[in-house]
Design goal:
By secondary structure, the chain is mostly helical. 87% of the residues lie in helices and 0% in strands. It folds into 2 domains: 66 residues; 37 residues. The chain contains 3 helices and no strands. The two termini are 57 Å apart.
């Protein structure tokens, strides 16, 4: 699972580098247009910049582990619940046997 985590973390970092390079390029192009007074194409650059910010946020939110906390919690419950039921069943059976032997 550690290898999977490493691969996922590296892929996430690679993607973030690509996105951040694109953000820098969009930002530089936008600043250049504004500084030169060229209004034409600014809206498209703003849209591009906003889209890259959205992609960056989604990549940041991507998990680096193959299993989320929710999955691990469900796995723990589904594993432990039968064990707990088995133990409780044994305890209750012993109590029932004792109570029946006391009643005789």
């Amino acid at each position: 699972m550690i290898d999977t985590h490493r691969v996922m973390a590296e892929a996430k970092e690679r993607q973030l580098r690509v996105v951040r390079d694109s953000l820098r390029a969009s930002s530089a192009a936008l600043e250049e247009r504004v500084a030169s007074g060229e209004i034409e194409g600014v809206a498209a650059l703003l849209d591009s910049f906003s889209a890259w910010v959205g992609v960056e946020n989604r990549v940041k939110e991507a998990p680096e582990w193959p299993y989320t906390r929710s999955i691990m919690r469900s796995l723990a419950v589904s594993t432990l619940l039968p064990i707990v039921v088995f133990i409780l069943e044994g305890v209750l059976l012993q109590l029932l046997v004792r109570s029946m032997s006391l009643g005789e």
